[in-house]
Amino acid sequence: MSPARHREPNAENIRELVYAFYDRVRADALLGPVFDAVLQGRWDDHLPKMCLFWSSLVLGEKGYRGNVQQAHQPLAGVEPRHFSRWLHLFLDTVCDRYEPAAAVRFMEPALRIAQSLQLSRFGWDYTIPPEQQALLERIAPKRARDDSPHERSGDER
Ligand code: HEM
Questions:
Q1: I want to staple 98 with a disulfide (CB 3.0 to 4.6 A). Which of 18, 57, 102, 148 is the partner?
Q2: Is 85 close to ligand 1, i.e. is its CB under 6 Å away?
Q3: 58 CA → ligand 1 middle, Å
């Protein structure tokens, strides 16, 4: 596929994004079984919920109610590589469908939330794998990063 990519996210194209992303997740050998084990018979509830979730993050709409941390706590066998795969698949799906400036509006929260899910799962001294750190650079290479060096303190001049 490569029709023109969206410049502006809206409820309709977010719905298409969510369904396309979870099609890829379900077909993926690493992620598919993890999701299917939990969501078997419940995909029809999960997907509309994820549309509301992304619409609330990207469009500022109010519809999503839930606790993202809590939903992931019971997942068995999830390792850092699952998060890396999730982020890669999501990035590919987003970048296929949106212009770069719009893609960043999805990827920034995705990376931030993935980071916080990993820290609570693997412990506060866990280091986010470099391949995940590199993803944001891939779509937004010119943006200053939060962890970029600041002016050195203690320098009197
Ligand atoms: C290794 C990566 C991930 C896996 C395997 C995973 C798996 C799942 C599963 C199985 C559920 C359904 C839980 C249930 O209803 O019982 C779920 C829910 C959800 N996931 Fe993930 N997830 C991952 C990463 C993420 C990331 C990075 C985000 C956000 C950017 C996210 C956002 C959500 C949200 C919003 C829900 C719905 C929570 C609710 O019930 O309100 N997930 N996830």
A1: 102
A2: no
A3: 17
